[in-house]
Amino acid sequence: MSRYIDDWLAEIPVVAIIRGVTPDEATEIGAAIMEAGVGIIEVPLNSPSPFESIENLSKAFGDKCVIGCGTLVNLEDAQRVADAGGKIAVTPNTNRGIIRACLELGMEPIPGWATPTEAFEAHQAGAKYLKLFPAGTYGAGHVKAVRAVLPKESKVLAVGGVGAHNAAEWLTAGVDGFGIGSEIYKAGRSASEVYQRTNEIVRSIIQILESEK
Question: Counting C-beta atoms within 10 Å of the first and last residue's C-beta, which end of the chain has fewer, N or C?
Fold first, then answer.
């Protein structure tokens, strides 16, 4: 699965966070995001009936893209996400027990971190992907400094206050991807608008990536 995630991050380094999505619209919203070029989709667990949404997305697109949860804070929910077909589990904090449980369940944990201590603790527990959260509070310079000492195999994602408007700064600092939420989806937003917004983000990031070659 990590290889699959890496492939998507190399193509378009974006995780679409669809907080507030409902099960009856999840497939349509997911299709719009995929059509625009983003292949990693996160349903935060504080969304309505999130496990049903994850299951719907996994059944529809699990062979084409990476589906999973966000805001995972306990072991019981980790099992439910895995049962729903989730392949990634994003957390707001670093918790060794949850990281190990996710790995045992066949999911890639993406724990939240803020300090070097938390980043290394997450890595040592088995997490390959590390989510700086909230990224906007710490800034790109924080990533650049910590990136210098992290193991090279670690992948750093920035979430919170990041998007197409400041992607260049973060990529230069050494992030491997972004988690983008409200810039893509807010509760009640139509699939056509989600497609348009996601497409604009994808085009902007592609331009940045091409300019850096």
Answer: C
